[in-house]
Every structure is written in C-alpha cells, then in structure tokens.
Amino acid sequence: MWVNLASDQDLQLSASGEDGVGVEETSAENLVLRCARADDSPHLLAWRNDPAAVKNSESLHAITFDIHQAWFEMALTSDECFLLVAEQKASDALGMNRVGTCRFDLVSTHSAAVSLNVNPFFRGQGFSLRVLREGIQIFSKHFSSIESLAAKILPTNRASQKVFFTSGFRLVDSSQRFGRWEKRIS
Ligand SMILES: CC(C)(COP(=O)(O)OP(=O)(O)OC[C@H]1O[C@@H](n2cnc3c(N)ncnc32)[C@H](O)[C@@H]1OP(=O)(O)O)[C@@H](O)C(=O)NCCC(=O)NCCS
C-alpha cells in the first residue's frame, strides 16, 4: 500500500461525506472506505473466489491461498497498488461488515486501472456504485497526477457495466474479450 497517505481516519471522513465528499444519498448508508489491512486478506480471497467473480475474471480460475497471500502482501506495501475496503456498521452493533473492495493499480504516471468486487453477501443491494464512486474520490484526492482510469469488463457482466457507466466510464474498445472502459478524472 502507498505509504505517503493520509491516515485511515482521513479516508473514512472522505468516504462518509463529512468533508463534503460523497454526500450523495444511496441505499448504502454509513459506508466507510479505508485502506486494506492484513486481516482483510481472507475476505478478499473469498470474494475473489466466489463463482460469479471467477466467471468475470481474466483467468477464469479460483486463486490459491498462497498466490493470493503473496499478491496481497505485495499490494499492502506496493507504491503501485492502492487497495481500499468498504465497510458498513453492522445492524447488531457487533462491529463492521466488510462490503467490498476497490483496487487501483498504477499503469503509468498518469493512468491507473480500477477494479471492483462486492462481498457476495452484499451483492445486488446497490453498494457497488457507492464503493466505486467514493473509491475514485479518495484515490484521486491522494493521487492527483492520475488523469484517467481504465477498467476491463466482460460484455456479459451487465451489473459491472452499469455501475461503471453510471460512474462516468465509457466503453472505448470492445475488440477484445474484455471491453475497455475509461474515465477521465482530471
Ligand atoms: C459487479 C459488481 C461489483 C456489481 O455489484 P452488485 O452489488 O452486484 O450490483 P448493485 O446491486 O450495486 O447494482 C449495480 C447496478 O447494476 C444493476 N444490475 C445488477 N445486477 C444486474 C444484472 N444481472 N443485469 C443487469 N443489471 C444489473 C443494478 O440494477 C444496478 O443498477 P441501478 O443502480 O440502475 O439499479 C458485483 O456483482 C461483483 O462484485 N461481481 C463479481 C466481481 C466483478 O464482476 N467485478 C467487476 C469486474 S470489473
């Protein structure tokens, strides 16, 4: 994870709208985004290996724990990966539910790739738009040199197409197996 970031608290304030960012009302209320941390690892692996996520992945395969863990540890320390986890306060007040993750991979000094995965338990409940939009807001706030974002989405992944389209991404290349969607952020 990038080391020169503001604190988790700053990120949470940004995501919850207390600094004027992300104040839009959605069904996904009380959502906060924070940097990923070590204890998120098994959750992200489970979401990645959920059948729907596997079906929408480039490899079409589940990932082993060892491969995931090596990647995850790299992601937590890498200057080229910015990994956010969205949480919502549990209704039983027992803690926070992990709702999803939004990941940014730097591909150049001016562009980054973005991907999104919602916890299967929370899919279909309207969380994805909020996670993506607020993830982008936090990312762009901290990485102001990045001018454009790109996402790879299968033509059959209608939910993902819809959320990226609604967030301002447009399909710029449909010649490959995955469509390439882009959005300018500065
Ligand atoms: C893609 C994904 C992030 C979408 O999140 P979600 O929680 O399932 O979707 P949401 O409930 O937030 O719905 C998002 C929009 O897609 C629509 N939608 C949901 N499922 C749909 C489907 N099967 N067909 C068409 N539209 C669909 C919703 O109606 C909503 O649009 P609306 O706001 O106009 O009502 C989630 O399904 C996921 O993590 N999938 C596995 C990983 C993945 O595919 N990631 C994306 C790779 S780029």
What sort of overall outline do the alpha carbons produce when their principal axes are compared? globular
- For this structure, the CATH topology is Aminopeptidase
> What do we call the CATH homologous superfamily?
Gcn5-related N-acetyltransferase (GNAT)
Helical percentage: 25-40%
Q: Which structural class best describes the helix and strand composition?
A: alpha+beta
Topology order in helix (H) and strand (E) letters: HEHHHEEEHEHEE
- Which sheet architecture does the biggest sheet show? 7 strands, mixed
Number of helices in the DSSP assignment: 6
The CA-CA distance between the termini, in Å, is 23 Å
Q: Poorly predicted ranges (pLDDT <50, ≥5 residues)?
A: 1-27
β-strand percent reads 25-35%
Number of domains: 1
CATH-defined architecture: 3-Layer(aba) Sandwich
State the CATH class: Alpha Beta
**How do the strands line up in the largest sheet?**
1-2-3-4-5-7-6
Mean pLDDT over the residues = 86
**Any idea what the radius of gyration is?**
16 Å
Bound molecules: coenzyme A
What's the total count of β strands?
A: 7
